[in-house]
Design brief:
Length: about 240
Amino acid sequence: MLIEIISIAALAVLLVMLFIAWRDRQSGSGNLPEAYVQQKKNKAISKAVLKLQKTYPDSDRFFLFWLQIQRLDTNLPEGAMAELGVYQGETALLLHALSPNRLLHLFDTFEGFRQEDLNQEKGEAATYKPHHFADTSVESVKEKLNKHPNIKFYKGDFATQCHLAEKEKFALVSIDVDLAKPTAEGLRFFYPRLLPGGVIFIHDYNPKWPELMRVVDDFLKEIPENAVLASDKDSSLIIVKNG
């Protein structure tokens, strides 16, 4: 009898805790930014973004993008967006939903990793094979993004494709390729074309990817800006270009 009472009490406590967590999330006193909560109350957030807030796999990263694009749309309305490392298009879908009027450039092999990019890797990336992240295609990502005309695709090695966008100016760039070589190439291409106040996100900046960290650290020594490390899954490093 005593065990049953204890079990019921424990269940009641759990239900109360779940209710409090749900209430906090709805009110904005949990892990939702207050600016987002207020815009949601004012019905200023699109249905597409509201849906992605529930389905995007990393809530912290979702709000990193949301907060920065809120800033950019207010202070830097010009400039395109770009993603290097698209995979199946989850982040591309989010970026487009957050700022649909900006041109979005998407770079990926859409065939997995290139062997020459894997050769010098260490840590987690040293376990990768060319077939990893190959379960994607340009067409499947186009379908996910509803073949929107404001999105451009570049299939193949970034070093041979980036010149096609060399005249563009960027407000936001997301680099998520897991590997050192294309990360370094992305930084060297995008940074000079990043508008003052623009932002670069570099994903997977943590000790599991030591070579990626090394090339990013080397690059940071060459620019005046300091980077900020975020607490999203696998850690994003954020660079905001000086105005």
